Amino acid sequence: xxxxxxxxxxxxxxVYKAVALTSKLSQxxxxxxIILTKSAMEFVTPLTFQVMSRNDVYYxxxxxxxxxxxxxxxxADWADLIVIAPATANAIGKLANGIADDMxxxxxxxxxxxVWIAPAMNVHMYDHPxxxxxxxxxxxxxxRFIEPSEGFLACGYVGKGRLEEPEKIVELIRxxxxxxxxxxxxKHVLITAGPTRxxxxxxxxxxxxxxxKMGYAIAQTAVELGAKVTLISGPVALKEPEGAExxxxxxxxxxxQAVMEHFSSADIVxxxxxxxxxxPAMRYDEKMKKSEGPMSLDFERTEDILKLxxxxxxxxxxxxxxxxxxxxxxxxKKKLQSKNADIIVANNIKQEGAGxxxxxxxxxxxxxxxxxxxxxLLSKHQVAEKLFVEIGLMNTPSKRIDTE
Length: 404
Ligand code: CTP
Fold this sequence. Notes:
Largest sheet: 8 strands, mixed
Number of strands: 22
Shape: elongated
Strand order of the largest sheet: 13-12-9-14-17-18-20-21
Bound molecules: cytidine-5'-triphosphate
Number of helices: 14
Number of domains: 2
Low-confidence stretches: 396-404
Mean pLDDT: 92
Radius of gyration: 25 Å
Structural class: alpha/beta
CATH topology of the largest domain: Rossmann fold
CATH architecture of the largest domain: 3-Layer(aba) Sandwich
């Protein structure tokens, strides 16, 4: 899947290099969208970037092209990576101080994707203590810098301040995503998906609305990220994710058996299946016949697989789901604790775009350290990608990805 790069271009003479950068990124199979500041447009017109990126170019916070979206939020959510190139001393200063007075700065404050900053300015400006302080502040916030190179500067000076060459920036971006691609290599990811069926007799069973789409998207993404994937799936009408070992089960008990068989070798366990909490206490061998009057059935509890895993886990990262219709946060936090999970992915299935059968989801991630992260409306594949980014960050001290 193509990665989305949001290029923020601020006003310095190096804007001409941003045109080359846009062209090279598009040629390298990235989706590129551009935001320009007013000063950047003093050097190059939006049309140039539009042609090079084959996408809309944004420069006015109040020019909303699509009435259903708020452009700066939508762009911030769209990006897998944001690059500010060239980044002027002014742009760096504004970001370091939380100023949001144009399309670039407003979008940057709304962004959760990694942001790389490629400064370009006069050597003395780059050396100014205020600029140095701003860079240090941004670094401490998790922003990463593509350092300017040394050489002839447009102002006549020779020194540090030239925007890094577009080829080099593209190479760094490519490397970052290659690294992401292999980020689960050597890891065993165990995923459960779909509904379970709890049989009453040979023709009838109890089940739920789960389609397995979320779990299958997670399995596909884990394969793409280089993991060994075991997918334990209830009955669904989906194509098996290529590269995953798929184990088909029907009942909660069969799911439990299959999960326990693979648990000890798993590094990450993601329980997206909608498991029945109850099964008919009796499973009849022959078809039940109707009789006059009402009928009732006795149910017994199935085992809570996630809870069992929570009790037995050693090194594994355990992710559970909570599909709720009300009190989402309360229920998610309760499940996080009662099941000893590391993350609960919660959604309100009544919300449009977040239900069982669609291709999208709106989830909030609850972490065992008390943090929570709300994600916007995303495709289930994007939700899966974001989930793995968060899992990857769980064991790292910094919450941002470095350029190295
Ligand atoms: N789960 C499980 N085994 C069960 C029931 C649920 O492993 N017998 C897992 C699900 O796969 C999911 C999480 O527990 O990851 C939460 O499931 P959910 O059905 O939302 O909640 P329950 O624990 O069943 O609680 P309740 O029905 O009270 O909401």
